[in-house]
Amino acid sequence: MKYKALVIDVDGTITHIDRKLSLAAAAKLRSLDIPVVIATGNVLCYAKAVAKLVGVCCNIIAENGGVIIDGFDNEPIVSDVIHECEDAYEFLSSEFEMEKLDSGYRKTEIVLRNNFDIEKAREVLGTRFPNVEIIDTHFAIHIKSKKINKGTGLLKMAELMGLETTDFVAIGDSVNDLEMLQEAGFAVAVGNADDFLKDIADYVSKASYGNGTVEAIDYLQSSSLI
To answer: Which residues are part of a known binding site?
Structure first.
């Protein structure tokens, strides 16, 4: 089977450990003859810049599935879930010192610097906000709705592109990529990925970060999967 599109995470997947863009990964993605979707926990403006600079513009899943756009100048589809995240943040901030990141740009989730005890915060949150979860992507802490993730984002993006989610190869490295890899037809975990992501992947690269993405795409091409 040949897959018709590729969806890929950014930080830790097409970057080096210091978050600098891997030029080799960018060149490899740019060379593909199939559409490439950028899927990130970061904000839309950041994701647009990544897509433009990599040269794969512009199908984007941003804010972990909360914001979706299928053209650089199109209106984004924004999930209406921010209020419950804000309520959870207000509740938690009475117990913990928290520092918001990108708060002026976030539309669907609250993102915090990783400088507090996330496990204790989960305990404090308990069942008070059943539709909200706290995840650690290794780059930041996200207070997000359980209703949306990169998997639901991929479902919507596939619909916009006239494809099925099983037409996609998905590449990622962290907890917020889990549903996306589960939803895709073929799942790739780069070498630095969390173990539970490697457990569900169809292919795990030996190399890490951007070099892992280059290795994975070489495998996909040599196996006539894309």
So the answer is: 9, 11, 150, 173, 177
DSSP 98: -
Q: Which residues are annotated as a binding site for Mg(2+)?
A: 9, 11, 173, 177
3-class DSSP assignment, residue 59 = strand
Q: What is the pLDDT of residues 165-198, one digit of tens each?
A: 999 999 999 999 999 999 999 999 999 999 999 9
Is 80 labeled as catalytic in the residue annotation? no
Question: What pTM was estimated for this model as a whole?
Answer: 0.95
Question: How far, in Å, CA of 42 to CA of 103, rounded?
Answer: 11
Which run of H or E residues covers position 111? Answer: strand 110-112
Catalytic residue among 9, 33, 102, 199: 9
Q: What is the dihedral of CA 225, 187, 191, 122, to 10 degrees?
A: 170
Q: Which domains does the chain have, with CATH numbers?
A: 5-78+148-223 (3.40.50.1000), 81-145 (3.90.1070.10)
CB 186 within 8 A of CB 196: no
Whether 77 and 69 have beta carbons less than 8 Å apart is answered as yes
